[in-house]
Amino acid sequence: MLAGILTIATNQSYGDGMVSTMADVVRLPKYCWGTQLIRNITNDPVPISKYVEIYGKSYMHLHHFCWGLDFEYRAMRSLNQVERNFRLSQALGNIDYVLTYNRDPHFVFLPEIYTARARILFMQQENSEAVRALQQAIALKPSYVPAVSRLSGYYKFAGDNAKAMQVLKEGLLHSPNSSLLKKRFAALSSGADAQTPTASKPD
């Protein structure tokens, strides 16, 4: 098993995508279907130039984020810890590729990308860096519920209820109708356990 993983590592410097069939594609968000290379599987009829017009030039790099999500999925289902760690590093490498080459501070997918980055970092026990990624997501979009919920959950898990509550209060100011944030707020107020940030599956 380890020899096979090392062979993959030689061929995939930071984790070239393993998405090759529709069974792989259907696990990904629909916006992935029109991205570079993945569109060769889906036969998306919309010209990629149209997506670039809608989302900006950084859409040309978004297939790496989609590959990252696929690697995260594969990591979560790896029975071998060495393989799991390797897949997580591939996921993070692809996500960081998008962030490195993004030149649009208003790229609409950034909050989701930073939140996915945080998920992987939590799984790698890189909690401080994961928190920074969530804070970046929230700074870009204060109403982005997945980031707010995960950050509050982390502080609750870490035993800092005051910070957890503050994150939820600020999140509810921007997303007052979020049933998830209201549920978390009620649970925290009553002293009930909040879900930890490492417990959820890929978005």
From TrEMBL:
Matching SUPFAM superfamilies, A to Z? TPR-like (SSF48452)
InterPro entries per record: TPR-like_helical_dom_sf, TPR_rpt
Show the Gene3D superfamilies listed in the entry: Tetratricopeptide repeat domain
- Chain segments annotated as coiled-coil in the UniProt record: none
**Which controlled-vocabulary keywords does the entry list?**
TPR repeat
Q: Name one Pfam family in it.
A: TPR_19
The question of whether ATP-binding is a record keyword is answered with: no
TPR repeat positions in this chain? 111-144
What is the name of this protein? Answer: Uncharacterized protein
Origin species? Allochromatium palmeri
Highest classification ranks of the organism: Bacteria, Pseudomonadati, Pseudomonadota, Gammaproteobacteria, Chromatiales
